[in-house]
Each structure stands twice: as C-alpha cells, then as structure tokens.
Automatic annotation (TrEMBL):
This is Pyrimidine dimer DNA glycosylase. It comes from the Bacteria. Gene3D superfamilies: T4 endonuclease V. Pfam families: Pyr_excise.
Amino acid sequence: MRIWDINPGYLNRQSLLGEHRELHGIVSIIVNGKKGYSKHPETLRWVGYEWALKMRHELLAAEMSLRGFNEKTPVMISSNEGKEGVWPEEYIDAPREQFTLLAGKYKKKKQGRIPLPKNGQQVWSQHKYSVMARNVPLYKKIGREVANISSLDSTDEFSALAALLTK
C-alpha cells in the first residue's frame, strides 16, 4: 500500500493505476471506519489529512486523463474534513528515496510520462514552468528558496524541495 509524494507524471501506467486504487482504499478505511489496513503506516499517515487525499486524487485523475484514462470514481470527502491546505509532514520514504525506488522498479520496464530526475536540480527544472504558469510570485519565491538550498542532492534538501512544490 503506497501513496507517493511525488508528481504522478513520474509513475508508469501500473503504478499510477495502483496508487489510484490504493488511495480509494485508504479513503474508504478512513471515511467508513473500516478495519482492514487501518493500522498500516500509509493509512495512519493520512488520517486527519482528508483534504490532501482529495487533492492527491485530483492529481492522479488529471494524470490519468492526460494518458487517456476516463476516471469516474471521485473521492467523496466533504471539504471540511481534514486540515485544508495541509499535507502530511511525515513520509514513509522521503521523496529522494521514492525516486530511487521507482528507478529500481522501472529498470527494465516502461517509465512514467516524466523522466525520473537524477538530482534535485532536475526536479526543479521539470516543475518550475508549471509553477510559474500558475503563480509568478510563488515561482520567484520558490526559485529564491531553491537557490539557497546548499545541495539539492542530499535527502533532506531534496525533501525540502518536494515539500515546497507540494505546497
């Protein structure tokens, strides 16, 4: 059971559809009080963050649409459930490790729509124009913060960049 913390564009078809299915499972466990997998670390990480689960679902649905899938299963969580605008601060695996896991997993398989980055600088270069198109002041703010990060290759700094891009 896994909900990735990286852009769904990095996921291949199987991982994208698998995460979509597992996200619906986590939502069902949380909303309906189901017991199966209720103590799983990934489920526990999302308790209280229903808004973020709904946003992650929207990201997955948008990526699925880009790839020609017709997503017809909305996440039924009211907007007042969970901390609005807040994402879980804890990771099961830090974003850098998630890219490493995917690189190993996709070694002899087709990768996602976006090539897996080799370093933090590539992550920023893959996302900066999307950020700029939506919010120029935010683009400038994150750009300054990225410039101040000493090494985008360390796990902590890589995670800091991922957190900035999530917000």
